[in-house]
Amino acid sequence: MAKKYVYYFGDGKAEGDGNMKELLGGKGAGLAEMTNLKVSVPPGFTISTEACVEYYKRGKTYPPGMMEQALQALKRVERSMHAGFGDPVNPLLVSVRSGARASMPGMMDTVLNVGLTTKTVEALAAKTRNERFAQDSYRRFIGMFGSIVMGINREHFDDILKHKKQDLGVTQDTHLDAKALKELVASYKELVKEETKRDFPDDPLDQLRMAINAVFSSWYGARAVTYRRLYGIPDSWGTAVNVVAMVFGNMGETSGTGVAFTRDPATGERTFFGECLMNAQGEDVVAGIRTPLPVRQLEKHVPQAYRDLEHTYKRLERHYRDMLDLEFTIQEGKLYMLQTRVGKRTGIAAVRIAVDMVKEGVISKREALQRIGPDQLAQYLYPIFDAKAESHCTALGKGLPAGPGAAAGQIALTPDRAVEMKAAGSRVVLVRQETSPDDIHGMNAALGFLTARGGMTSHAAVVARQMGKVCVAGCDAVEVLDSGSVRIGTQTFREGDYLSVNGSTGNVYAGDIPVVESEVIQVLQGKLEAANSEKYRLFDTVLKWADDVRRLKVRANADVPDQARIARGFGAEGIGLCRTEHMFFAEDRILIMQQMILARTREEREKYLDQLLPLQKQDFIGLYREMKGYPVTIRLLDPPLHEFLPKREDLMVEIAQLELTGGAASVLEEKKRLLARVEELHEFNPMLGLRGCRLGITMPEITRMQARAIMEAACELAKEGAKIVPEIMIPLVGMVSEMKAQKDLVREVATETMKRCNVKLSYLVGTMIELPRAAVTADRIAEEAEFFSFGTNDLTQTTFGFSRDDAAKFIDHYKTVNILETDPFAVLDREGVGALMRTAINGGRKTRPDIKLGICGEHGGDPSSVEFCHQLGLDYVSCSPYRVAIARLAAAQVAITEGDAKPKGTAKPKPRSGKVKAGTKAAASKPAGRKAVQPAKRAAKPAPAKARRGRKPAARRSTRSKR
Description:
Layout lengths: L5 E5 L2 E2 L6 H16 L7 E4 L1 H9 L8 H16 L2 E2 L5 E2 L1 E6 L10 E5 L3 H11 L2 H18 L5 H15 L9 H19 L7 H15 L3 H10 L8 E6 L10 E6 L11 E6 L4 H5 L5 E2 L3 H4 L1 H18 L3 E8 L2 E9 L4 H13 L5 H7 L2 H4 L6 E2 L1 H5 L5 E2 L1 E4 L2 E7 L2 H9 L4 E5 L7 H6 L2 E4 L7 H9 L2 E4 L4 E5 L2 E4 L2 E4 L3 E5 L4 E4 L4 E2 L2 H6 L9 H16 L3 E5 L3 H9 L5 E5 L7 H12 L3 H26 L4 E4 L12 H14 L3 H17 L11 H6 L1 H20 L6 E5 L5 H22 L6 E6 L2 H5 L1 H4 L5 E4 L1 H9 L7 H9 L16 H15 L4 E4 L7 H10 L3 E4 L4 H14 L66
Parallel strand pairs: 4-5, 17-18, 18-19, 19-20, 27-28, 27-34, 28-29, 29-30, 30-31, 31-32, 32-33, 33-34
Antiparallel strand pairs: 1-2, 1-3, 3-8, 6-7, 6-8, 9-10, 9-12, 10-11, 12-13, 14-26, 15-25, 16-20, 17-24, 21-22, 22-23, 24-25
Helix pairs in contact: 4-5, 5-7, 6-7, 13-14, 13-21, 14-21, 21-36, 22-24, 23-24, 24-28, 25-26, 28-29, 35-36
């Protein structure tokens, strides 16, 4: 018996349901669920995603039995509709639409009115007694089928339509009469013959097969592939095909079509929101070709249908317990639902909807946390226009506020140009008459979009909400004049001119308006009262819920007190990485640092280090004060010394200029001495050279000074009553002997300092695991190290053998050709780097069961990597201060997903300080929850980074960059 590939729905009963998204796609599952709920849905059938996968496996050939099952289901549709597909008297028409399991709005193809032929168009006119409607449907079908299925440029059809309207002196399609539409049909057919050298297909079954093929093929269309790359959707999923009996919104003024949301997708406000067009077909609204009416206008035109729609949307939202995106058609006053799915929404809306639904008793707090993407939460941190600067600007025009936020940049008029300008380092605002799915690559490159046409449910608006971009849609003041210029209001702009768009108000301004911090950051900085910011209160509410369930602690990477203050504001529970080298680049210390490097003897170096000591000490005091008792992990000096000296090439130029101009002899001599030292310190591969613990071992006076500064600062605050537990981290350890040498030195200095200050402190000495050798010998290193912090940036480099400085040249290509699924410097590699981390964790805990484990690479702020760190059983992640909130939410989500959420009332764990003598193993049993980490099966593909909004990590410019 052939495998089942086709699932029928109709007459109140469906063969599928809403839980079958993987098989039926989102659209098919929604149609099946609505049918089972007895909602008014036209009958039809869904060809499964498995059929699409098999279609490609078989070289674009249908799997056995698929088409036979489709034709049997088509017979059932005919019986339900009391019409025949291709019948010359009572014809049935169908739509053929895509539907992957993940929503990909506009990225694949749809064909409406399949089944119209020279015979059935006449039958349709006779049956409906509406010649204009029949001819309008036919010309729409030829244009859509010709462009999507037969590959003819859509603009050719649009040009014919445009000229016809000009000839007749009309502006709207709806003003064309039956005669004009019939002439358009003939012109369209001539275009098809001219472009393809064959007649437009006139057999309904041929049309159906070709339309199904086109939908399958659109899965690998350029825009669909680009979209999947942006959002991490696997190629292997395939798309379903939905064949549904046509209902018509273009049958006159009591017919129409629309798209609606059960709540506002931009703000989250609890109000029925949407748009409609009377006497139109479905794609007209989404395409943005005509600016639609607010959905509530239906009440005037078709009051009963509107009441039915209002009842249906409330019923569906109660059933799905989420904000929904709905598509509907009204045919001569009767409502039909064509789609329901969980609606795309901005991050601002996602948080508000989740919080409101908890207050309404619809969902639990844990469900609410799962509804918010971590990178959606990040939209609360996006900048807004400076209010004073904006108040001095006059708006050129006003459109619909379709994507909140502020964007200012240079105008790009095509998606390709937007990509080029972004690559050149420009901030880009994409300006289009209307966007289409083919623009997806340019939309990804732009900060925001401005369109002349389209509404709040147009393509531009939907994509903006999904990408987290700023969008002003349907701005009547905009007119794209040609490929290089656009008129907005009374002003003409060239590509490259600056434009500012406010996606929260819809206003458009000339020039580059400065932006300021978001409301949330202004509250954290004390510039705005929390009581005056609803956004901050929503943001804070969600994070408090997250803290109630997550087990993973979240720290921040912070080098100076200002960064630490921001980190605490975002809820960081300590500093996971303080890079002490960044402190030496300040103006008051870089010259002292250079003198220390130039010194030839230990005594001379110590003289300059004594000058740096009080400066470092004050930095540490500042960090300790901001953290108020939370742990502070301080990494000793890591980069090679040459990074603190001027560049070799710059020195050579300066010396040549001094020699040519007769500069002061003392200055010339100093520059030459500096150059000689730079040459002496030059390394062919500094990333693997004299740096990290190697520097501390060969120049122990540097480690001594830093350890003393750390401990003196802690002792000084301890005398004030503060509870300080410094965590001193030795960088780039590869051997236990390196760890022991540096730890012994640190302990010696710590003991001396505490004795001199007459203070007794607890402190930890640990290491950064950033070399494969450290990971595989972690059991030995743990004999000395009291904590491990995974430096996953360098661990990724040394595991892959990739230089992060240079990997950007090929990683994008690797992703394009499916060698890599994600950039390993952005998303933690679970199979390679992750395997080394498991080895290190098991080895470390075998020796020291209570060893503290964390991660301090940039991966600490990536939601997928946070998930993996939870699964590995780490104690904390550490990330940029501005990613702390995202990491808190991600940690809560994985705790819920893994069934490992913190019970209510769980006490905070006490600080640990395990000690193990060198050469011995700890005899204690593993504490609760400290299972050895087993090798995992091949890791599942990380969740889409809509989070990531498509951002790539900046390539590292030097070894000084974040490790």
